[in-house]
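Case study 2.
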Amino acid sequence: MKSAEKPDESVVTDQDGTVGTADEAVETIQREMTAFARRARASAGRMHPELSLVSYTLLGHLEESGGCRATDLAAHYALDKSTVSRQVAALERAGLIERRLDPEDHRVQVLHLTDAGGRILAQVTESRRGAFRERLEGWPEDDLARFAAYLLRYNAAATQTPLRDAATD
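Prediction:
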């Protein structure tokens, strides 16, 4: 095996003194991020029974962006257009979003939150923040700041280098 192909065996130490290799740390990160994603999907239904995690995320983006096209949502979240189309249709039926003509190009429809969508989004967002506060209660402020910085760094890198699809490698 060439040196460039060798697994990274650098020693890493976490705060409680546990020592492992960088490869072991990456394995732990992958496992814990998967568990986090499963919990997030499961808890979304408890926050609001009719609002999936994907729906919540789409509503949040519409609020943050002030409205956008469905194709913009699909591109932003790297979702299939048909997936977004189904989610958008369900959110429209629930009265949480509405389509409006783009004032600059009347051929384009822009999705916007309705008042009801804004209320539900605010309610679910506050519930999620409360759950995070509860889970992170007792963490030192420095740990919270470091954790937030690591998440920002990780997500910024994800926009530059998306995960490879193992099926196409």
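The two ends are 19 Å apart (CA to CA).
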